[in-house]
Amino acid sequence: MSEVRYDGKTVIVTGGGGSLGRAYCLLFASRGANVVVNDLGGSYTGEGASQSAADKVVEEIKAAGGNAIASYESVSEMDSAEKTIKAGIDAFGRVDILINNAGILRDKSFAKMEEDDWDKIMEVHMKGAFCMTKACWPHFREQSYGRVIMTASAAGIYGNFGQANYSAAKLGLFGMGQTLALEGKKYNINVNTIAPVARSRMTETVMPPPLLEKLRPEAVAPLVGWLCSEESKESGSLFEVGAGRFFKLGWQRNGGFATANDDGVASLEELRDNWSDVADMSDAKPVRNIQDSTMEFMKPIKKKS
Ligand SMILES: NC(=O)c1ccc[n+]([C@@H]2O[C@H](COP(=O)([O-])OP(=O)(O)OC[C@H]3O[C@@H](n4cnc5c(N)ncnc54)[C@H](O)[C@@H]3O)[C@@H](O)[C@H]2O)c1
Is the pTM of this model over 0.85? Predict the structure, then answer.
């Protein structure tokens, strides 16, 4: 069986000193990649900074015979993102793979959420992924090669009590990734989004220990590794991953309801009386892309006889 390898490739893992980030760094390094371990090293709510988070992972990689450097820059500003990319290029000559993984939490019910809780989450997750991807993008385009991972969350896909800020940012990353997958296609830049489940300081406080034990961060890494391999053609997809399971998610739309009125404007009462057709998902089918979505609005409406 041939090995999946990344010899000569440089991967940047943001939040690489944390639970999932470390697992990604170790897997990439063990398969020949040069790794930039980027981590600000603050608390899980985004306070403070420390070099030790990134340093520890770099030491681990080097001790196992791999190549790695540390970056202690925050992902959230354009100039610090540029510095991280430049560090990778200076050390290894190129950048090929970006794992947008850095993250923090500011959980609070919406009633108690402050503006700062919203801003901090957007800054690290959304702006962070924007700055890091933006800094990599010209290099990826120029070399006609790039692999990007966005990290979403079940909280964004399904909603979760106390995580309005985090949910918004996490599903926002999926939206950004979907557009980048389209824009990157002709440059061989693949962009995919994952919603992982793994034990970390983020989940330790909300999940029971027996469950946490099963949720090894190493179990998420193979999906990230495969999606970022040269062989993989997957792009513009969303996956749930954890505990050895790998699932792809997609949008579905039902048959819906179309007004019988010639001017195409339904009355409130017509909508009320046909609500079961609008809401019932039993006949739902996959919608693959924006063309699929838009086509449906262009079709002539069949009048009920
Ligand atoms: N663990 C899970 O079950 C789970 C579920 C869904 C999503 N996620 C997401 O996975 C990612 C990794 O989370 P984790 O569980 O490994 O948590 P973690 O706290 O162990 O790792 C996150 C890392 O990001 C770093 N970081 C934070 N802000 C940064 C910044 N501005 N610049 C650079 N680095 C920064 C932290 O120092 C930390 O090391 C996060 O985006 C998180 O939201 C995790």
Answer: yes
